[in-house]
């Protein structure tokens, strides 16, 4: 079999995460262009049923490592197993989501394999030699760098929402190979005893297609209710600027920006956010940006596709009403 592209798949609550579907969809397109095979790797417990799903999104082969020790993510166990799978599969390229897990795994795997790692990439191209080149933002999103390496495989983490998800084809079949975990005891430095998940009906910030974010102008945590109402009307996640987080209006896990989360939704609605470079670093690759700010000179308007100059406390409830009417 020709060597190809290997996608490290992430699953959550028995479903493949959206970023994994994006990587399979784009991986299929690139594999076809470069004449490569597409392999998905599934780690976890009771995950074999997800192999046909990976096939329907384009995988030619799915490597399944099903073991109780992989039920919850741990750095040591996942690094150990993936290091072995990658060496056995010998792909040209290994890609994973630029998620908490991907950011933790990729540099460790690169070190063990002795190869380079392109992190937080937003685009991939095939060059004239049929080699993949990865594009990533640098200088807080002010410029882009293209990365390629001679050493194989090249490892890359891809920002969620960088690629669209193709329509699944349930007729597609993949070769499913089950591999024993055989984790080296020395690699099990941490054992997860319990995972406590916070219940929320809103999408996770980095997966969300639409995000409504609030800044210092929200004045307090209670006022975020108007952003939550808007978010719930359109199925969005709620984010915040660092000023809002530092002021205690929102927890740190909701911070968007250079020292917070990097997001790339289809629609980002910035409410009372000035548009500091560190905020733009985390959301500048959003497909459509809407800014609501009472200062017409605010920097956020330099990146916004649509700008509303005015008081967010008047505009946001009007938007919510209108969306509710339109979506009723
Ligand atoms: P402000 O800059 O104070 O802007 C508030 C805006 O609200 C103003 O534009 C104002 O016109 C508008 N406004 C006020 N009242 C209303 C109203 N009623 N209706 C409409 N508009 C109104 N920031 C981040 O966001 N994320 C990061 O990850 C991050 N990392 C950083 C890392 C470093 C190393 C440093 C130095 C800074 C970082 N910052 C980050 C901070 C960043 O520089 C800004 O201070 C911060 O983004 C400002 O947040 P803000 O836009 O909410 O507040």
TrEMBL record:
Signal sequence bounds: none
Matching SUPFAM superfamilies: Adenine nucleotide alpha hydrolases-like, DHS-like NAD/FAD-binding domain
Cofactor annotation: FAD
Record's keyword annotation contains Cell inner membrane: no
Example GO biological process: fatty acid beta-oxidation using acyl-CoA dehydrogenase
Binding note for cofactor: Binds 1 FAD per dimer.
GO MF, one annotated term: electron transfer activity
Protein name as catalogued: Electron transfer flavoprotein, alpha subunit
Organism of derivation: Desulfitobacterium dehalogenans (strain ATCC 51507 / DSM 9161 / JW/IU-DC1)
């Amino acid at each position: 079999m020709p060597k190809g592209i290997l996608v490290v798949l992430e699953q959550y609550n028995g479903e493949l995460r959206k970023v994994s579907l994006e990587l399979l969809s784009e991986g299929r397109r690139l594999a076809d262009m470069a004449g490569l095979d597409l392999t998905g790797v599934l780690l976890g417990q009771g995950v074999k049923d997800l192999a046909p799903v990976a096939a329907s999104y384009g995988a030619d082969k799915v490597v399944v490592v099903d073991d109780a020790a992989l039920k919850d993510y741990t750095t040591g166990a996942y690094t150990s197993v993936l290091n072995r799978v990658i060496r056995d599969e010998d792909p040209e390229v290994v890609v994973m989501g630029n998620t908490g897990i991907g950011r933790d795994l990729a540099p460790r795997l690169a070190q063990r394999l002795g190869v380079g790692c392109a992190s937080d990439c937003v685009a991939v191209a095939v060059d004239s030699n049929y080699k993949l080149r990865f594009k990533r933002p640098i200088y807080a999103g002010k410029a882009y760098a293209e990365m390629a390496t001679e050493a194989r495989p090249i490892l890359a983490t891809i920002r969620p929402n960088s690629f669209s998800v193709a329509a699944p084809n349930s007729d597609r079949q993949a070769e499913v190979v089950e591999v024993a975990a055989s984790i080296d005891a020395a690699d099990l430095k941490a054992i997860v005893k319990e995972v406590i998940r916070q219940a929320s009906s809103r999408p996770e910030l980095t997966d969300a297609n639409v995000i409504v974010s609030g800044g210092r102008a929200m004045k307090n945590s209670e006022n975020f209710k108007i952003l939550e109402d808007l978010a719930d009307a359109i199925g969005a996640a709620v984010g915040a600027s660092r000023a809002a987080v530092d002021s205690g209006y929102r927890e740190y896990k909701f911070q968007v920006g250079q020292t917070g989360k990097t997001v790339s939704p289809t629609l980002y609605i910035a409410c009372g956010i000035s548009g500091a470079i560190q905020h733009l670093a985390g959301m500048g690759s959003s497909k459509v940006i809407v800014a609501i700010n009472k200062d017409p000179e605010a920097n956020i308007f330099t990146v916004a596709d649509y700008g509303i100059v005015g008081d967010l406390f008047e505009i946001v409830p009007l938007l919510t009403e209108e969306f509710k009417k339109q979506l009723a």
